[in-house]
User: What shape does this take?
Amino acid sequence: MLILGSHVSLGGTDQFLGSVEEAIAYGANALMVYTGAPQNTIRKPILELKIPEAHAKMAVNGIMLDNIIVHAPYIVNLANPDLEKREFAIDFLSEEVRRTEALGSRILVLHPGAHLNQGVEKGIELIIQGVNAIISNTPSSHVRIALEGMAGKGTEVGRNFAELAAIISGIKDKSRVGVCFDTCHSHDAGYRVKDDIDQVLTEFDAVIGLDKLLCVHVNDSKNPLGAHKDRHSNIGFGELGFATIDKVVHHELLVNIPKILETPYVKSEKYPNKSYPPYKREIEMIKARKFDPDLIGRIIADHETS
Assistant: This one.
């Protein structure tokens, strides 16, 4: 069975219950949330997140706890040379692990960090120290930290399988770590996702191990191969194209792995300040396994004629 969902919001009065209801409205059987705004570290208390109500709604609608993904915010950096900022990141991410477990998820996706001109080796060293500290701070947790493969912009660490493997090699409890594979990031990093996804997965298995692949972010890319820019595109409207995405999401090696759309909202042509989530239509298209060239227009029509 295809395990497919998208990033959904968490906020307002319904909190995590609202996240689950949004996923159901998209026809998804998986979902990814931030436990608060991704641009800051302000977080509501766990007891205010309406978790029991969300789990009850999931049970009725066939969404398994294994298919909940949590994404850590972008603004913390385990490779920061500033010790105070690095220690804050460790403490904050330790709490994110606890919040992830409270939501019922077992996967916390984390951008490994940026070395900020210290060099890749130093960045890897600091990330290893940080992840080990987070795991040490949460010894009874079942949450696995999924290091996301990056596009390689700026001083990002984790821009190839070798760097991710180097981080994992330094983690004391390797049962607590894995990898999130992003189709756009991998393409932008130089991996031939479009031309030969089989070879890409073979290389992943040889360098990291497919047993470490915990989730897949499914995104088209606005950029040519190896651009190192990380600019997502809607499914079928980028450099990867629909046939590539179809091949990835239905790949026999990935069948049991949750797949999450992070594609951009579609901007209204009539109302410049408005944009709309594409996920319901993209999920329908992926399930049908047929590219819809009118997808963008349909997404706009869903919101502006309803």
Notes: The longest strand covers residues 177-182. Residues 115 and 123 are 5 Å apart (CA to CA).
